Amino acid sequence: MTRIVIYQQRVEFGDCDPARIVWFPNFFRWIDAASRHFFIQCGVPPWHETEKSMGVIGTPLVDTHAKFIRTASYGDVLQIHTSVAEWRSKSFVQRYRVTRNDEPIMECDEVRIFGGRREDGSMRALPVPDEIRRLCE
Amino acid sequence: MTRIVIYQQRVEFGDCDPARIVWFPNFFRWIDAASRHFFIQCGVPPWHETEKSMGVIGTPLVDTHAKFIRTASYGDVLQIHTSVAEWRSKSFVQRYRVTRNDEPIMECDEVRIFGGRREDGSMRALPVPDEIRRLCE
Amino acid sequence: MTRIVIYQQRVEFGDCDPARIVWFPNFFRWIDAASRHFFIQCGVPPWHETEKSMGVIGTPLVDTHAKFIRTASYGDVLQIHTSVAEWRSKSFVQRYRVTRNDEPIMECDEVRIFGGRREDGSMRALPVPDEIRRLCE
Amino acid sequence: MTRIVIYQQRVEFGDCDPARIVWFPNFFRWIDAASRHFFIQCGVPPWHETEKSMGVIGTPLVDTHAKFIRTASYGDVLQIHTSVAEWRSKSFVQRYRVTRNDEPIMECDEVRIFGGRREDGSMRALPVPDEIRRLCE
Question: How many CB pairs under 8 A join A and D?
Fold first, then answer.
């Protein structure tokens, strides 16, 4: 059983382009919010707290693959069904199913890491923290 | 020999997030602009003209796959090297290599279609128009 | 008594800039959504319907004046209290008070028009339609 | 003689809304970039350097007033003519004239401060630093 958290998103006029449909980069804005929302719903503290407690400053994106199935437009309300499809030692696959009620709109699989800061300020992948994984399963 | 068009993009303060790096949905904003810019540089008329002449209202995205290699931040100037990696009968693969001079930052392969309107207003994939393909090769 | 409609907005990580506060153009994104939401809550049909029935294609912005009182950051939930402060013959003043519960965050007064299309495609201000005004008071 | 710096901005498809014109919050995105660009062109170091040298972490916006004169759409190239119209003791007025070649598109006057951090992390207005003012006049 994989835990699924649903994030709801209204589509606004300004999210749509001259073709009157959602301009696709906006889906990634919403998916990023759904990603953070997933961890919060699972009880993971906000990143500015995990930075102090375990060095995790966020979950930077390494790879994303999305399929656009149906268009959406303003007035629509979308549901983003978010889960972690796979845990790896130093990364994880976060999965999104965007629907308009029963209709599939878009699907996305991302590879993210738990990022920490190196001394020179650059980012590195930390081993997946057990306490975060336990909260999300 | 594949034709490559370079689109240049400044990174601004507001493109960056609290981690001080480009918030990733902004890469898709820029890639969408680079896609349109590619066709314009190849001599393809703007979509509001092709809509009248051949029914093409744009190149909606069907699938996208991106890898994030290095972070970028404000003050950076990026180059988006854009080409068509593959022509299919009713779609094409548009490829992007985002660099900061010699450093690779991000890579993306998209499947797009040439979209036309059905009578009910919905979108359908048109056969790749020969005259557009010729201009882009 | 002026009618006030409240639009709620979560602040997301990606809405914030490297100073860790909401990047101000995002307030205008939300205010524009609150503007449209106001008319919908008042019972005004969507613009693609009013375009057919009374020629109104939207409420383009002519002038906006905003004061930024307190910063907001991700995790915050904001309320946008929206009303029409003044009806003129060919324009109206739409007023927004953005709060985080009891705290004022931002205030904005806009002048908008009910826009119609001229034959050449350009926009013109229509007289404020009585039926819309009645619904919003 | 007031110093004016010009920032150029292409309008992209995704900057436009279903009415096929620039969605107005995008003007504020560009104006914020023009603001930062003004200081850089005047020789002011980036904010992460001024933070160390004089405590200035940026120029947060206090008040903005904009007039929208003509619409713009994708394919347009805009010029943002930026200057400081007035220096006050703890704030300044930054002025923008957005044109499409000879045509005025939009005008904006902002009040900004030079922001520093209080010990509790909140922001306060610093006296306008003489060395910055001298560079910008």
Answer: 22
What chain B residue is nearest to D20 in terms of C-alpha separation?
B48
User: Is this structure's pTM higher than 0.90?
Assistant: yes
**What is the number of structural domains in chain C?**
1
Residue B82 tokens read as 């854009």
Are the CB atoms for B11 and B74 separated by under 8 Å? yes
State the CATH number of the domain containing residue D100: 3.10.129.10
Give, for all 137 residues of chain C, the pLDDT tens digit: 799 999 999 999 999 999 889 999 999 999 999 999 999 999 999 888 999 999 998 999 999 999 999 999 999 999 999 999 999 999 999 999 999 999 999 999 999 999 998 888 778 999 999 999 999 99
Chain D residues with beta carbon closer than 8 angstroms to that of B74: 36
Between CA A75 and CA A77, with CA A76 as vertex, the angle to 5 degrees is 120
Q: How far apart are the first and last CA of chain B?
A: 8
* Residue B118 DSSP code: -
**Are the beta carbons of C59 and C51 closer than 8 angstroms?**
no
User: How far, in Å, CA of A107 to CA of A67, rounded?
Assistant: 5
Tell me the two tokens of residue D112.
């900004």
Nearest to C23 by CA among D45, B16, B75: B16
Burial of D113 from C-beta contacts in 10 A (0-12 / 13-18 / 19+):
buried
Cβ pair D33:B10 closer than 8 A = yes
Chain centroid to CA B73: 21
Which residue range(s) make up the domain with A94? Answer: 5-136
